[in-house]
Amino acid sequence: MAIQVEHEIHTRRRGRNIGVGLLLLGFIAIVFGLTVVKVLQLGDLRSFETFDHVVRPQILPENLPETAPEAAPEGTN
Amino acid sequence: MSDMSLHETTPDTVYEAQMGDYFALLKPRVMSLVVFTALVGLLVAPVPVHPFIGFVAILCIAVGAGASGALNMWWDADIDAAMRRTAKRPIPDGRVQPGEALGLGLALSFFAILLLGLATNAVATGLLAFTIFFYAVIYSMWLKRATPQNIVIGGAAGAFPPMIGWAVATGGVSIESVLMFGLIFMWTPPHFWALALFVKTDYGDAGVPMLTETHGRRVTRNHVLAYCLPLVAVALGLGFTSIGGPVYLAVAVVFNAWFLKGCYDIWRRDEAQAEADKYKVEIKTFKVSLYYLFAHFGALLIEAALRANHIGGL
Prior knowledge:
Chain A has a domain at about 10-45. Chain A has two helices and no strands. Chain A has helices at about 10, 15-40. Chain A is elongated. Chain B is mainly α. In chain B, about 75% of the residues lie in helices and about 0% in strands. The radius of gyration of chain B is 21 Å and the shape is flat. The model of chain B is unreliable at about 1-10 (pLDDT under 50). The interface between A and B is medium-sized, with 17 and 19 residues. Chain B: Pathway: Porphyrin-containing compound metabolism; heme O biosynthesis; heme O from protoheme: step 1/1. Chain B: This is Protoheme IX farnesyltransferase.
């Protein structure tokens, strides 16, 4: 008996296969969404990038976002 | 087994279980109540939850409830086959094999607990795991066939969802979540026994001890009133906690008076009177019990909305 390209079981289980596919896609979307939300809730990620004391361009002082300059002490100007 | 051998040995008449059959294993009607009460527990909590995490948490609680439903159907397939109401469920009807239900129940339990643990906290996760264990093992496997108080014990499993929702937000258990648990726990017996009085069940044929059959209808009527009294105390008590307020209290007073009156009427009459008017009071009280739970949790939601807008509160 020749193996059919479109086996009968493919037709018979089409609904189930589509359902399982959609469930897996939903699961991926949930894990992805959770990851995004959890990472965003961490706040400033740079604080996590210094744990190994390796210099990275994004945490060099000159690449940090500009902050308001501190007021100079009286009498220094 | 090869692909070809499958083709040769599977007759055309063999029924192939579809997604709907597997979904039916999850007891979707029970899931809808679980979703509603868990959502209220989550929304009334004083700690805000990110909407996506809230969505995932409710999904996990619903899937966990569905998983325990599938495990219940796997274990109780013999009982379901013996009763008219449940004979068309997927396993006794032959649409799903018992092993499939067991596998689905275990897999969904695992995923629901794992995902809730990743998304929220240990208390909520532990409560969900315990709820599934409680319903599948303590209720279904152990006590359902052993005691006529089975419905009281089974009610505890249905009472956990608002507690889990609350724990998702707060990470703990408090008087508010315990009273929400108590509200559903104490509500279940009079709700179910009012139903058992007017519906002719065949639990006896299936070997399940139901109060109406083991102790008779007089005792069941006594139990309806006996469980309604502490229910009223719990329901009103909830109104004086941080999630209660004037709206909740007003709703609770009206619905508790209404339900208590129905339970008192059920207790007062005997079987001859009930048969004479075709169980009119029992049917009415059962319907009131449905509104009762919805009204209480709905009122808690209204109170939460008012608090969010800085209106009302005790």
